Amino acid sequence: MTWLSPPLTRWACFTSPDGALYYSLLLHQVTTLERTPEEWFELGEVALAGLDEEVRLLAADAGFDPDEPLQEIFRQAKVDQDYALGLDIFRGIA
Length: 94
Fold this sequence. Notes:
Layout: H1 19-31, H2 37-61, H3 70-79
């Protein structure tokens, strides 16, 4: 397959001169909150860290090693425990 143009390495709105401002305005329009893109990023990191901790606690309760990478926990749950999806290990535990 031949590409007509190289893939984008940055979001399109950031390639224009006022791209960062445009992105900020888009976030405000979608969320209706006055937060900067950096604040949204930090909120996302905090939320993901909390989810990571919760998943590891549930994995430990289900007999998996919580120190393994999450991808490995889900792989083990799918392959070793015959779960349809890795997330199935958490049904009925919490």
